[in-house]
Specification:
It is built from 26 helices and no strands. It is mainly alpha-helical and about 575 residues long. Belongs to the SCC4/mau-2 family. Keywords: Cell cycle, Cell division, Chromosome partition, Mitosis, Nucleus.
Length: about 575
């Protein structure tokens, strides 16, 4: 009882100092000197090794992010690594986010952690991740192999499975049979419940993200449901229920709390691709709330990565639902997160410029949209992102109507009929839609119908609701132009219903305008009036949001195309873009 009381007392003074330090760090403006004093006050108490190492990490992080004293920051990191291999997560951040500077620190930690299997394998994974960032997959796979062999020597099948699964997942040309094999390996493994569920989450995350990368939104549903059920199960288990006899089996590939955020994240990714945007908002809110709680006591870089990816997806949802001002403020939030971490900016710069390009399209700033997409193309070597950017840039050229040479060049590079550059079902369907849009603007209606029917076939096969709605309304427009009012109505009515369900404000605006004109042409005065009122309501909502977005100081971000994100923004005098094409 005496020992317990002493432990509780030690924890209380530590938490008090940590709370004061966090209060000063998050003050406006931050009081960094006082924050550092609070953290330094921990050491005279002769704290346990774990707390000492964590405090060195926190000091290093504060000094790196808020001062120019990089040498002192590095010194604290090295002390933390020497005291506790758990310091591997902050090695990159305190090394100026330089992979070259981080790798020696990780190798040193790997060398001194050979008798602590848990940290030895986590450090091997971390170094493998750095090699992956550098596109050195050979070295990454070698390290994963070392991890698997180390686990074999330690007699830990549980520790051996994660690197084996990653090595299998790398062989993309054989991915489907390998995923089946991986699933069998996990299900056949015998161990305590929390270890088995942890491995199942690991495998299912690999499986779900593979399907999402392939744009197979419908096919992924059974795997995603299993993953969600698995995380519910693991959240009810306690880590100390069954302690393994082998120390190597203490390893978990990710803390349980981080797994929960990761499952929220892949659920948001799925909802965004499928067009369930209200569901995406719901899970984003849950994930961000969880992240805020975790980041109060955990400065792991992976949490910031999760936060940025969540924001990237919800920003795209906001642009679709007609909340451009909110989307712009969230883009600014991503910029602020990237300012704090050069590595984070390096990994997400192309995505950030892509989001700005999509925002520019939504407010009809086509020259800025072109500049943002062009910048994003220059910054990425990721094939799926490249195809996504090119598809959107092609739509910008189509709307401008005077960039024929550039447009033909882009369309040839994303030709869905021949050698499409990526295997994504969703992106290939989108490429057919862009072809149909171009043919429509060229007045080649039969050709446009062929492309759009191909889009519909592909989008219906995988429940790509936004592409379905866009294709239906464009087909409806074509039939209206051709004078086939009945067929036009058969396309526009389901387009409006689906767009309302998503909800997609632009498709609702377009559909309501077509319904108004269709009903006028057919002599249905009451229905025409109702559609006209809907169109007016949508127009007013979009106009109000447009004016609000363009009036924000963050709107000046649309001119940023080089270097790190701007630190601050100057206020706009008012909106400077035309709404003619929008309304």
């Amino acid at each position: 009882r005496c020992e317990k009381a002493q432990a509780e007392a030690a924890e209380s003074w530590y938490l008090a100092l940590l709370g004061f330090a966090e209060h000063f760090r998050t003050s406006s403006p931050p009081k960094i000197r006082l924050c550092v004093h609070c953290l330094q006050a921990v050491f005279p108490f002769k704290p346990p090794q774990r707390i000492e190492a964590r405090t060195h990490l926190q000091l290093g992080s504060v000094l790196y992010h808020h001062t120019k004293n990089s040498e002192q920051a590095r010194s604290h990191l090295e002390k933390a690594v020497s005291a506790d291999p758990a310091a591997r997560e902050e090695a990159r951040a305190l090394s100026g986010n330089s992979v070259d500077a981080a790798k020696p620190l990780l190798r040193k930690a790997i060398q001194i952690s050979q008798q602590t299997p848990y940290w030895h394998c986590r450090l091997l994974f971390q170094l493998a991740q750095l090699h992956t960032l550098e596109k050195d997959l050979v070295s990454a796979c070698d390290l994963l192999g070392v991890g698997a062999e180390y686990a074999r020597v330690r007699g830990s099948q549980h520790l051996r499975l994660p690197p084996q699964l990653l090595l299998m997942e790398r062989k993309l040309q054989e991915v489907h049979p390998l995923l089946t094999l991986c699933g069998q390996i996990v299900e056949n493994w015998q161990g305590n419940p929390i270890q088995k569920e942890s491995l199942r989450v690991f495998f299912l995350v690999l499986q779900v993200t593979h399907y999402l990368d392939a744009g197979q939104v419908k096919s992924v549903k059974p795997c995603l449901k299993q993953l969600q059920q698995c995380i519910q199960t693991i959240s009810t288990l306690h880590d100390d229920e069954i302690l393994p006899s082998n120390p190597a089996d203490l390893f978990h590939w990710l803390p349980k709390e981080h797994m929960c955020v990761l499952v929220y994240l892949v659920t948001v990714m799925h909802s965004m691709q499928a067009g369930y945007l209200e569901k995406a908002q719901k899970y984003t809110d849950k994930a961000l709330m969880q992240l805020e709680k975790l980041k109060m006591l955990d400065c792991s870089p992976i949490l910031s990565s999760f936060q940025v990816i969540l924001l990237e997806h919800i920003i795209m949802c906001r642009l679709v639902t007609g909340h451009k001002a909110t989307a712009l403020q969230e883009i600014s939030q991503v910029c602020q997160l990237c300012q704090q971490s050069p590595r984070l900016f390096s990994n997400h710069a192309a995505q950030l410029h892509t989001l700005l390009g999509l925002y520019c399209v939504s407010v009809n700033c086509m020259d800025n949209a072109e500049a943002q997409f062009t910048t994003a193309l220059r910054l990425t070597n990721h094939q799926e992102l490249w195809a996504f950017i090119v598809t959107n840039l092609a739509s910008v050229y189509i709307r401008e109507g005077n960039r024929h040479q550039e447009l033909y060049s882009l369309l040839e590079r994303i030709n869905p009929d021949h050698s499409f550059p990526v295997s994504s079902h969703c992106l290939r369907a989108a490429a057919f839609y862009v072809r149909g849009l171009f043919s429509f603007f060229q007045g080649r209606y039969n050709e446009a119908k062929r492309f759009l029917r191909e889009t519909l076939k592909m989008s219906n096969a995988e429940d790509l609701n936004r592409l379905t709605a866009c294709s239906l309304v464009l087909l409806g427009h074509i039939f209206y132009v051709l004078g086939n009012h009945r067929e036009s109505n058969n396309m526009v009515v389901p387009a409006m219903q689906l767009a309302s369900k998503i909800p997609d404000m632009s498709v609702q605006l377009w559909s309501s305008a077509l319904l108004r004109d269709l009903n006028k042409a057919c002599g249905n005065a009451m229905d025409a009036h109702e559609a006209a009122q809907m169109h007016q309501n949508f127009s007013q909502q979009l106009l109000q949001d447009h004016i609000e977005a363009c009036s924000l100081p963050e709107h000046n971000l649309i001119t940023w195309t080089d270097g790190p994100p701007p630190v601050q923004f100057q206020a706009q005098n008012g909106p400077n873009t035309s709404l003619a094409s929008l309304l």
